[in-house]
Amino acid sequence: MLLENKQVAIIGAGPGGLTLAKLLQLEGVSVKVYERDLNRTARTQGGTLDLHWESGLKALEKAGLMDAFKSNYRAGNDRLRIIDKNATIVFDEHQETSAANFGDEWFRPEIDRGPLRDILLDALLPDTVVWDSHVLSIEKITETWKIVFQNGNTIVADIVIGADGANSKIRHMVTDILPFYSGVTILEKNIYDAKNSAPKIYDLLKGGKIMSFGESKTITMSAKGDGSIDLYMGFKAEEGWIANSGIDFKSDQVLDWFKKEYNGWDDIWLELFENKQTSFTPRPMYCMPLDQCWEAQSNITLIGDAAHLMPPYAGEGVNMAMLDALELSKSLTSEKSKDLKYAFAHYEKQMFKRFAITGRETLDNTYWMHSVDGLKKMLALFS
Ligand SMILES: Cc1cc2nc3c(=O)[nH]c(=O)nc-3n(C[C@H](O)[C@H](O)[C@H](O)COP(=O)(O)OP(=O)(O)OC[C@H]3O[C@@H](n4cnc5c(N)ncnc54)[C@H](O)[C@@H]3O)c2cc1C
Predict the structure, then answer these.
(1) Which atom of ligand 1 is nearest to the CA of 306?
(2) Which alpha helices (DSSP H) does 80-176 contain, by range?
(3) Which residue has the higher pLDDT, 276 or 141?
(4) pLDDT tens, 161-213?
(5) Helices (H), the chain
(6) Ligand 1, residues 305, 319, 362: which to mutate, most atoms within 8 A of Cβ?
(7) What is the pLDDT of residues 72-107, one digit of tens each?
C-alpha cells in the first residue's frame, strides 16, 4: 500500500479531517489529527447540519458509522418553515407527512455538529487527535513536512492533509489561489434556552428550521438538541463592512443596526437580541474560484473548506468535506493508484469537478436568496 510506513498528519479535527482519519484507520494507515482546540469540549459547536445520501451519509456508511448516526440524528429537525418578514408562515413542512427515510435521495437527516463530531471522535483509535495543536507554520524539508505549533511543539510528517477550514494554514503550500468575497455577510449567534429567552420564535421554529426572506435579506435558524437556536442573518454588504461599520458586535449596537437595516420587519424578530449570554459573530462569506485547479504534489493536499470554501446557502459544505475524505481515502489506498502523486491527482480532479458544480449552485443560491425576489424564488423552488 502507498501509505505503508508513512506518517500521515491531518490538520484540523472538523468533519472532513475526522472522517478522513477514520477511513484511513480502517485501511490500517498510521494517522494523527492535529487540532487547535484545547480539548474536545473546548468550544461550542455551531448549528445543525443536514447530511446528504450521495455525500455525507455515503462517507459515514463507508466508515461503518451509520448506526451511530441513526442513534444521534434529530428526526423532524429537517422540517422547514419559510416565513416572510412579517413572520407569516408561507410554506410549512410541519403540515406535511413525509414518507422519506434513509436511502431516499431527498431524505436529508439533521444532526447537531457536537454529536456528529463525537461520533467521529469516538470511532478513532485512542490518541489519534492531538489537541492544543494550533499550526503556526509549515515548511518543506526534502520530501517531508515540518510543522510548528503555537504550543512550541514541532512534528515532521511524510504526508500532510490540510483539513483546517476557511483560513487554512496549509493551503498556501498547495496553491496561491485566493478566495473572493461573495458580497454577502452574515451575523451568527447561538441563542441558549430559547424556550424562555425567545419564546415566540421558539414556537415558530417548532423544533425544525426557519428561513425568512425580505428586501434582499435573510434570517436562517435551526433548533438544536440542547434547547438553543443557531441563527444567522445574511445581507448584502461591501467587503470590509465589518470593520468599516464601526459596530461593536458584542454590544446593543447590533440591535440598533438591525432596527435600521431590517426596518419594517415584525417585532417578533427583536426576541433574537434579548438573550445577552452570547454575542453575534460577523462573518463575511468568501468562496474559492469555481474554476480553481492546481498541479498535484506527491505528499500534500486539501479537503473540505480549506480546499473549496463556499457560503452556506446550499447546505453542501460539510457534505463536500466528508465526500472529499471518502474519495481521498479511496484514492490513497487503491491498488490502482500507481504512486502517491497519481493518487492525489486522481482525488483532486474529482474534487475540482464537483466543486465547479456545487460551488455554482451555492453562489447562485446566495445571490437570489439575497435579491428582492428571494422569497418568491424560494417558494417556487419548493412548489
Ligand atoms: C454560519 C454557517 C452555517 C453553515 N451551515 C451549513 C449547513 O447547514 N450545511 C453545511 O453542509 N455546511 C454549512 N456550513 C459550512 C460548514 O460549516 C463547513 O463547510 C464544514 O464545517 C467544513 O468542514 P471542514 O472539516 O472542512 O472544516 P471545519 O469544520 O472548519 O473544521 C476545521 C477544523 O480545523 C481546525 N483548525 C483551524 N485552523 C487550524 C490551525 N491553524 N491549526 C490546527 N487546527 C486548525 C478548526 O478548529 C476546526 O476544528 C456553514 C458555515 C457557516 C459559517
Answers:
(1) 26
(2) 113-122
(3) 141
(4) 999 999 999 999 999 999 999 999 999 999 999 999 999 999 999 999 999 99
(5) 15-26, 56-62, 66-72, 113-122, 194-197, 199-205, 241-244, 253-261, 305-308, 317-333, 340-369, 374-382
(6) 305
(7) 998 878 889 999 999 999 999 887 766 678 888 888
Rg (CA), the chain: 21
Quick check: 12 and 306 in contact, CB under 8 A?
A: yes
CA–centroid distance, 265 to ligand 1, in Å, is: 31
Question: Which of 310, 318, 355 is the pocket-test mutation for ligand 1 (most atoms within 8 Å of CB)?
Answer: 318
Residue nearest to atom 51 of ligand 1 (CA): 312
Q: Is the pTM of this model over 0.85?
A: yes
Burial group, residue 5, by CB count within 10 angstroms (0-12, 13-18, 19+): exposed
Residue 189: exposed, middle, or buried by beta-carbon count in 10 A (0-12, 13-18, 19+)?
Answer: buried
- Alpha carbon distance 256, 338 (integer Å): 61
Residue 63 DSSP one-character state? T
What are the respective helix, strand and coil percentages of the chain, to the nearest 5? 35, 25, 40
Q: What's 125's DSSP letter?
A: P
Residues with CB under 6 A from ligand 1: 11-17, 34-37, 47, 49, 133-135, 163-165, 169, 186, 188, 232, 283, 304-305, 312, 315-319, 321
**Closest atom of ligand 1 relative to the 164 alpha carbon:** 34
